[in-house]
Amino acid sequence: xxxxxxxxxxxxxxxxxxxxxxxxxxxxxxxxxxxxxxxxxxxxxxxxxxxxxxxxxxxxxxxxxxxxxxxxxxxxxxxxxxxxxxxxxxxxxxxxxxxxxxxxxxxxxxxxxxxxxxxxxxxxxxxxxxxxxxxxxxxxxxxxxxxxxxxxxxxxxxxxxxxxxxxxxxxxxxxxxxxxxxxxxxxxxxxxxxxxxxxxxxxxxxxxxxxx
Length: 212
What we know:
The protein is built from six helices and two strands, in the order ααααααββ.
């Protein structure tokens, strides 16, 4: 088991250690399209963690600057505006978000998981909510593995924790796989995801869950 005293310095503590590790992993993805897609999913997670000015274009620009800063400006991906941030672009440290001080009940998942699940419950678009819950679950699974590398974790453990953290408002299907973020090939393009019909004939393996 790893302890904070032995881990690397967090560039932006407000995003949590797992976001930083995901960005470092993104740097190792050789396929340009896969690296770009994976990086965009990380930005989406950072977007939900940062609750300030969510719909503001400047906020997205700030997230990409934070992303490149964490990556030490050594990653070949392209922000939506077509301009890669450089060290010279960031002349002073960006303003910090308020960093939550209260310890969560599931601290091994990081400080932001409870907030992310709360946002998922509040989302009205079924397709986006399903995808987001899948991403959160996969994020939690990867965080659990990093927290305790000696202990095997299966999807059932994560799904049970999601149900507990959300107070039963999110119950994921047994067939849903939580390996979405554990490989270099993201299987869902969030931006292009189409809204699925609200019926009982959805394919298994998607990020759907029963909202109570």
